[in-house]
Amino acid sequence: MSENKKQDEKKLPNWLSFNADxxxxxxxxxxxxxxxxxxxxxxxxxxxxxxxxxAKKQGKNDEDTxxxxxxxxxxxxxxxxxxxxxxxxxxxxxxxxxxxREQNND
Length: 106
Fold this sequence. Notes:
Helices cover 52% and strands 21% of the residues. With 106 residues, it is of the alpha+beta class. Helix 2 (49-58) crosses helix 3. A hairpin with a 2-residue loop joins strand 2 (24-34) and strand 3 (37-44).
């Protein structure tokens, strides 16, 4: 493992990890119901250009666009994303930005 990868892993918060597929695994403070199943963590996949374009078409503003994008990436509805506690939503945001950044460091 390269020295840079080791340093990046040390900098990750304890609630965030990446699985073998490069997806962000985000542990939540508060359990949420997604698709009828209660979960205490979510897996966020890497966005495609299509995901971003679709979210921009669906959203009326940047906040809406982010909701649509995150919902797509974690596999739930935007209404379910709205039920996340603010601290957990912040974890989604942090996980997303690290996920995108991680993909650029390969």
